[in-house]
Amino acid sequence: MATEVREGTLVLPDELVDTEVLGEEGLEDMINLIHLFAIGNAAYSGLVKEAHNQVVVISGESGAGKTESTKLIMQYLAAVNKGSNSIITEQILEANPLLESFGNAKTIRNDNSSRFGKYVELYFRRGAIVGAKTSEYLLEKSRIVSQAADERNYHVFYELLKGLTEEEMKKYGLKSASQYFYLNQGGSCDIASKNDEEDFRKLRGAMEILSFTTKEQESIYRILACVLHVGNIYFSRTQNAHQHEGVEVSSVAEMKWVAYLLELSEDSLKEAFTMKVTVRLSRPLHSQSNM
Ligand SMILES: Nc1ncnc2c1ncn2[C@@H]1O[C@H](COP(=O)(O)OP(=O)(O)O)[C@@H](O)[C@H]1O
Ligand SMILES: [Mg+2]
């Protein structure tokens, strides 16, 4: 039997009123959030009863609650779906912390602002979730190298530096966040409402659930560490005998770390940082004849 929470607005299936799904205080929370579950409910019924594909469009200005609403609707669909394969639903839900670590950052408007667009498709067969696909687009890449005052780079960097073990920090040559130019431009590396160390544990957990191998996780940490090392490389101006200006790398230690972590030769890396190559295509050049 289904339970009526608010007369005439929504009939909740028993699975949702079950305290195993909601917890003791969950029903009260649900009543506060009823509109989101109602939307999830309408989409799920449309899908199952009418066999029509459904789409939920979540829009609003930054900080309006799109990201949180999306997660709640996904949690709703995961809780009511008739599937017996809990690994798939767990993997679908765990994709969120992963995407947020790499794609969300503190801005002046929202401590957890999504800096990318996202289109999530959930696939159902006979009322059961059988898979999902997330397409991301338009990641704000410029944030990796520069941040405005009171803003931060992507969460993942701060989480990494708070959450890695001492041994891992040594392995990647890392220091605390305030020592990196790519992380300290905004002024503060900490967010009062967020525990980066705890979120790194969640990120590791998400990678495990999503079947990232140890090797894959290590390469991710390596690449992240390299981004931070690259940001701390500084250059000085040089002038050769023909008065041609050039640059040279002044921070050798950071260069060595990047070369070591990416398994590149130091010389070729240095060349890539200090030389530019101009390729000219040889095309016929047309100009007016002289007398
Ligand atoms: N349903 C909700 N319950 C509790 N807090 C919420 C809810 N929706 C939004 N918030 C608060 O507002 C902040 C911004 O919401 P978010 O979903 O990140 O906004 P958007 O994605 O639209 O920019 C969240 O970090 C959270 O503090
Ligand atoms: Mg968002």
UniProtKB/TrEMBL annotation:
<dbReference type="GO" id="GO:0003779">
    <property type="term" value="F:actin binding"/>
</dbReference>
<keyword id="KW-0009">Actin-binding</keyword>
<comment type="similarity">
    <text>Belongs to the TRAFAC class myosin-kinesin ATPase superfamily. Myosin family.</text>
</comment>
<dbReference type="GO" id="GO:0016459">
    <property type="term" value="C:myosin complex"/>
</dbReference>
<dbReference type="InterPro" id="IPR027417">
    <property type="entry name" value="P-loop_NTPase"/>
</dbReference>
<feature type="domain" description="Myosin motor">
    <location>
        <begin position="1"/>
        <end position="291"/>
    </location>
</feature>
<keyword id="KW-0518">Myosin</keyword>
<dbReference type="InterPro" id="IPR001609">
    <property type="entry name" value="Myosin_head_motor_dom-like"/>
</dbReference>
<dbReference type="GO" id="GO:0003774">
    <property type="term" value="F:cytoskeletal motor activity"/>
</dbReference>
<dbReference type="InterPro" id="IPR036961">
    <property type="entry name" value="Kinesin_motor_dom_sf"/>
</dbReference>
<keyword id="KW-0547">Nucleotide-binding</keyword>
<protein>
    <recommendedName>
        <fullName>Myosin motor domain-containing protein</fullName>
    </recommendedName>
</protein>
<keyword id="KW-0067">ATP-binding</keyword>
<dbReference type="InterPro" id="IPR051567">
    <property type="entry name" value="Unconventional_Myosin_ATPase"/>
</dbReference>
<dbReference type="GO" id="GO:0005524">
    <property type="term" value="F:ATP binding"/>
</dbReference>
<keyword id="KW-0505">Motor protein</keyword>
<feature type="binding site">
    <location>
        <begin position="60"/>
        <end position="67"/>
    </location>
    <ligand>
        <name>ATP</name>
    </ligand>
</feature>
<dbReference type="Pfam" id="PF00063">
    <property type="entry name" value="Myosin_head"/>
</dbReference>
